[in-house]
Amino acid sequence: MRAGPVLSVRDASRHYISGDSVVRALDGVSFDINPGEVVGILGPSGSGKSTLLLIAGLLEPPTAGEVFIRGRCVSSVGADLDSLRDFRRDNIGFVFQKANLIPFLSAVENVALALEIDDVPSRPARAYAEHLLESVDLTHRIDNLPTRLSGGEQQRVAVARALANDPALILADEPTAALDSVRGRQVIGLFRQIADTRQAAVAVVTHDPRVLDLFDRTMELRDGRIVAETPLSTDGNKSLQNATAAQDHSQ
Amino acid sequence: MNLGLKDVRHNLGRFTMTAAGVAFLVTASIGMIGLYRGIVADALLVIERIGADLWVVQGGRSGPFSESSAIASGMDRRVAGVAGVAIVRRFVQISQQFEHAGQSRRASLTGLDYPLDNGAWVPLVAGRHLKSGHFEAIADKSIGLALGERVRLGLDDFTIVGLTTGMVDMSGDGLLFVTVNDAASIAQRRTSEEVLLARSAAGRSNQGSLSSSSVAQDSKIAAALVTLHPAADVVTVRRAIMAWGDANVLSRAEQQSLLLDQRLWRLRIQILAFTAVLLVVMAIVISLIIYMLTMEKRHQIAMLKLIGARNRVIVLMIAEQAYLIGAGGLALGLVLANIIFPYFPRRVVIDPADIALLGVAMALICGFASLLGISRALKVRAQEVLS
Fold first, then answer.
1. Which of A25, A149, B59, B196 could join A153 via S-S bond, C-beta 3.0 to 4.6 A?
2. Domains (ranges, CATH) in chain A?
């Protein structure tokens, strides 16, 4: 088990200049996410959820504050994030509303690509990609192109891809928005499993009320600030069982 | 994982169409270069094949391929008397238009100094070389005459005894070989009215013969072709002939230079300029294609960056596709050129060295096009995947 939080954000702000005014997309946000924890980030549109994800994912530098991943300060004001591409590859997995699969690669190739980019030889990369797809119940779809997969299947391929490099942190931005409630719960259930089995920290930006019970805790953002934090869920395991049951039922 | 190749395989129809578009530009470039090579080859064909060491032409002139040249009818015998000269042949070449089988034909009538020269240097594809001093002809296939056919030239009928292919003059007219005497006779053809008027004029002035024409008749012999003894000194022979004053002497290299650097200079520059324009157009088109392909892939490139792909992966994907389009276009263009150009009325020479140069040009163009696409791709930010 990893000691200490996987992700620590300290006083992170992101301000944009728009004409004469300053837009505070994120305004002094601090939080931690521990290993094995699934955290929901909630809030209305424009509250700063996606900006927070970009900063935590080392895709945007904060205009103030710092981001620590596994205790290492990796991003602060003016950080050269392009130089952190290797670090990002090894430590962070991303899942988005759209699966964003490469359209000319099959499901297994999409997953294996993430490994080959990390210099894993193609044979073991493919073998591990098949294993990952098996873990998200897509064994029968490994050679299908994205256009031959349903939305839920595409999203599961995206999850498998995010897991390819065994990242300590998984960041998901509205991963259930394009899915029905059953498939939405399946995806969050998958994150729950990943957090439990791999001790990964998972942050999910969502405003899908159907999946809130699957999070360990939630943070609510408004106008770039955290305005509410719910405590650890007490019936998380029960909810996971429900999600898994829904997954089994759909199959 | 070879992303460029996988994308090509996934969008094979589209890439094939793109390569086909480039192929047509390549075909046009091969055509322009080939036309240039063809014109040069046609222009030099007689000079290179006829095997003369020196060309004795009209004094103060640059020979029959540059301007009109007529030497005295006895010039060949004078030249033969110069020490070091082994063989002298008379040379005549006249553009001729004639009727055959109800159609108007054009040919470049070229004299062979029979029996010294029966046309053995002319490569035949059918029939034989000349065996008679009169009324036999060797024709290039492009004139449209068949072996054994009889054709009326001047006042006489000639039998086609041999056929050649690709033997044309610099304007593209097929060569029709007859003996020098026959060629001079055909060239001196005149109408009855001309003869009558000439006789009348001769009567008034009490000058000239009854066979003279009212049209001033120069000698039709354009040059004397000199083959030297192996041990002969070219400079001495040349000096001896030049000393006569009524003759000029040109080497084979000088003839070639006169043709290429003076007579055909403008045409060569024009064709090369067109080729350059085509290459520029090709560069622009390929660059735009690669740029558009890159723009279409912005989302995928952003995704690749997001999952940590190094720039090398993205650069390779774009460059590979640019080179695949270029190589496909070049190969397809070459195939098209080999299919289409043999049907063109003028010779189009597809020279392997030119194709290799075109390949290098394509490689540079694809490199340039890749750079455009790559520079755009490297500006794509990973977070664009969210857009």
1. A149
2. 38-60+80-250 (3.40.50.300)
Averaged in consecutive runs of 10 residues, what is the pLDDT profile of chain B (387 residues)?
87 91 92 89 87 89 80 88 93 89 90 90 93 93 92 90 91 91 84 80 61 52 91 92 90 88 86 88 88 88 86 90 92 95 90 93 90 89 78
- Chain B residue with CA closest to A121: the answer is B1
Look at B386 and A113 and tell me if their CB atoms are within 8 Å.
Answer: no
B303: nearest CB among A102, A104, A109: A102
Domain ranges of chain B: 3-43+266-386, 49-261
Q: Which ipTM was obtained for this model?
A: 0.79
CA-CA-CA-CA torsion sign (B314, B315, B320, B321)? positive
Chain B residue with the nearest C-alpha to that of A86: B308
Contact (CB<8Å) A161/B3 = no
CA distance to partner chain B, nearest, from residue A225 (Å) = 22
The separation between the first and the last C-alpha atoms of chain B, rounded to the nearest angstrom, is 26
Answer yes or no: do A104 and B381 touch at CB < 8 A: no
Q: Is A128 on the interface with B (CB under 8 A)?
A: no
- Nearest-Cα distance to chain B for A50, in Å, is 9
- Asked if the Cβ–Cβ distance from A85 to B303 is below 8 Å, we say no
CB-CB: which of B7, B299, B383 is closest to A104? B7
Give the residue from chain B lying closest to A170, CA to CA. B307
Contacts 24+ apart (CB under 8 A), B116-122: B116/B87, B116/B89, B117/B89, B119/B162, B119/B177, B121/B49, B121/B50, B121/B51, B122/B49, B122/B162, B122/B164, B122/B167, B122/B177
